[in-house]
Inverse folding.
């Protein structure tokens, strides 16, 4: 059983018409329903849920994989909360960032770079190409599939070199985007996937849902190792002529 | 001509006997002399050089490649100065981190992870193995060479997956360390190399000096591109049926 | 249920004393017993088992993950059989190469490089370090563990850059080795792991067995995609001004 | 001075109208002229130049970087000649494969995979996006540039995971292609770049020429190391309790 938490900013769906129609209970509840299966115990949470912005230490400690959607309220997230999320990911929690999550504090904290990209929210035709067909996140996904409309995110995508380049998207307007990428962060595994603009129907697409499902299994942490550093260690082998202190 | 700045914390050499004997004018001046050649215009700088901790914006703007040595005064470096270094690296300046630079603020800011490792400063036998023999940073370096004594830095080395794993070190005490690694940070290229403890003679080793020289050429920025994001872009191709705003 | 086939050269165990004592029924049967669990349906096979050198097309088609041990009879394997193995791996079968498998025809065919290394079979102390602690192949494995004696395989290891560097080994004699590495080959996933000399007890080590078990799960193929090329495709979008033929 | 050899199949330009008009002396001579500069000593060669198919051992031994164009006569190249090219690349010679070179014997020999892709030779609008803006092969190249018409090569591109993904191309017909990729092969560095169909004008594009120039500098071999394996080595450190033979 994977303990999944879906965290959503949950602002657009309560303040704008199109998002409200597409996702009346919020993107988090929509995803919960779509992802629901026997293997996942899913909790939802959101920015103004509680004093801890829906990300209490207790919730994070009981989360194996955190799915993250955020957009226009990135700056409202407190630094200490963002840091708490990042530290928990470092400790092994999987992190799946959707759409503008790349601009969110936790994602940028974890990757170090700006994670910026150019954009155009014209709901244009988008085609997702799989560039790692043997990757578990791509299981059951065709070599390419279409999104009838999505916000364009374009290069340069200011990320470190990804571990795996799972998907690259083609846009009608002429751009490409390395929009499905994985990273390792301490003991945590990160997957970023670009679809999911609040005024687009990408989360209605079964391939998008399947990819997120696959990513949950993939990001589920393995048994934990001690990777702590910053400490003296005795030698494992006898050392001749060393200046023991 | 590559404009090289060697920045040093310059504390040990003024307060401790062994470093003072090994590097009487400081590690920065020692490296300046060893690296000196017609292709490099070398400036040295240090933590208490001036109000800007030796890292003024003017100096950074005139630096192509910054060599960094720091150790026990990591916390004395101001956050704003560390950020200035990181932003300049993002903008294309090469960054070569030596020894404890991995614990320094700029390096950790750029990589996102803790960059921690275990350690043992017994001056033990260390052997540097080249795992990327075709890499320009390894040009002219044998497949392995010895350091008669060095501080051990051991795994787990908490870094993102490096672009290139150029060197892995073997220690008499039983550890290995991914001690020669490259990263990309925006337009900047980063090389980290573990030798150079203040009480060891690694900078007297011609292979170590050659590696730093090679890394300077490698990290010298290429002509700059505009990689800025966070902005709307017009489509490059006409888009049918898009919801133009 | 993963259909696992363990293929062994099975020469040393029938012709040399120490291997015969360590693995009286052959390394393949020893591994079968150790790996046995409810999730795996394990078949064993060997070089002189049948006319097809124990690698009939029927067997390969019914194999999800192939474990391979070979050493002194690499040249006895027919080229057409090696090619059959490689093509099946390309089609999605996982391939786990143990010890001298790196010198075997299928492994070299798949990787392209020589896969050569230096060696010393003195049964020396070896320590396996995990350099990807979040990797599923490292699940449940400590950050390092010892092999009391193993044949040394040393750098330069002539392989392409691996996808993941999961383990690096330390040897008492002064070498290091990138001895646990993954690759992708078409739709197939490859893991190479260096322990397992015929005169050493590495397969008695529970960590080694756990790593092979983990690798079986990891290499189990995902649902297959059509990645065939070499063919014309109609455009997915209308093309203006193209020279249609 | 880099000793560059440009090898061309040189069939289309002598047998077909459009190639003959675009490249009357052959693609090799066209590229020689465009790449000519003080740093390069350029030789041209072609398939029916001599008994050695223009790839004598003497020529290869005196080549630092080999540029390769081939298409419809891939099978005419003798296996022994292809192997000779691959071995010389393994020994350190840089290899720059253009367009259908990916289907040529040397390239496939070096990479191990099929190197297949789907295609459509409709001379359609193609846009080359740089995904590694700090890479030396991208020096002086804008973040994207257009090719007015090119043959589409599309995913899946059956290559191992590249070392660097320097360029990804966008096609009007809806595909993307990882069309600018680097690999390491022994001591040799490989760059593959997709433009250059015999009926297109891509080699007239100054960005394409600049990229090839950059790649020549990048692929120029560094001083050679001994990476030979398959041999016993004495230990570098004394080994206690080893079973010396």
């Amino acid at each position: 059983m994977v303990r999944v938490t879906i965290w959503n900013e949950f602002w657009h769906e309560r303040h704008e018409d199109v998002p409200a129609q597409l996702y009346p209970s919020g993107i988090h509840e929509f995803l919960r329903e779509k992802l629901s299966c026997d293997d996942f115990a899913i909790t939802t949470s959101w920015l103004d849920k509680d004093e801890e912005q829906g990300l209490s230490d207790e919730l994070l400690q009981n989360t194996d994989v955190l799915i993250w959607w955020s957009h226009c309220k990135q700056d409202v997230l407190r630094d200490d909360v963002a840091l708490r999320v990042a530290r928990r990911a470092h400790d092994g929690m999987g992190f799946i960032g959707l759409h503008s999550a790349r601009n969110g504090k936790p994602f940028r904290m974890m990757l170090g770079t700006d994670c910026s990209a150019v954009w155009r929210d014209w709901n244009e035709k988008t085609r997702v190409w799989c560039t790692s067909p043997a990757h578990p996140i791509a299981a059951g996904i065709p070599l390419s599939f279409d999104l009838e409309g999505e916000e364009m995110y374009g290069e340069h995508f200011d990320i470190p070199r990804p571990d795996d380049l799972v998907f690259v998207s083609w846009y009608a307007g002429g751009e490409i985007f390395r929009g499905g990428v994985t990273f390792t962060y301490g003991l945590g595994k990160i997957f970023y996937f670009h679809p999911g603009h609040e005024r687009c129907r990408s989360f209605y697409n079964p391939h998008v849902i399947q990819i997120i499902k696959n990513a949950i299994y993939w990001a589920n942490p393995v048994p934990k190792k001690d990777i702590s550093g910053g400490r003296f260690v005795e030698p494992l082998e006898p050392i001749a002529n060393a200046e023991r202190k």
